Amino acid sequence: MSFLSRKTDEGFDRLQTLLLNMRAGDALCVDEAVRASGLSEDVCRTALESLERVGLMNRENDRRFVRRTLDVVAR
């Protein structure tokens, strides 16, 4: 595994840990995700926008995302 590939994997691991530790109502700015993960701004923004599209995050403005609760339907 190349150095760059390993650094990218480690960055995604750090971002994943950050996201998994968020609770409903917690906010995360793109800049904070960049600092915590070491990934590029574009990568962090894309990850947060993807989470917004699937309903896990709400976007408050261009750079701030807030963790939502999951809407669970009882069956």
Features:
alpha+beta, 75 residues, three-stranded antiparallel sheet, elongated, Arc Repressor Mutant, subunit A, 3 strands, single chain
Architecture overview:
Helix content is 52%, strand content 13%. The protein is an alpha+beta fold. It has one domain: Winged helix-like DNA-binding domain superfamily/Winged helix DNA-binding domain (Arc Repressor Mutant, subunit A), CATH 1.10.10. Strands 1-3-2 form a 3-stranded antiparallel β-sheet. A hairpin with a 4-residue loop joins strand 2 and strand 3 (64-67). Helix 1 (3-20) crosses helix 2 and helix 2 packs across helix 3 (41-53). The relative contact order is 0.17.
Write the layout of secondary structure elements.
Blueprint: H1 3-20, E1 27-29, H2 30-37, H3 41-53, E2 57-59, E3 64-67
Structure at a glance:
The chain is an alpha+beta fold and 75 residues long.
Amount of helix = 40-55%
Oligomer: single chain
Count of domain modules:
1
List low-pLDDT spans: none
**Largest sheet properties:** 3 strands, antiparallel
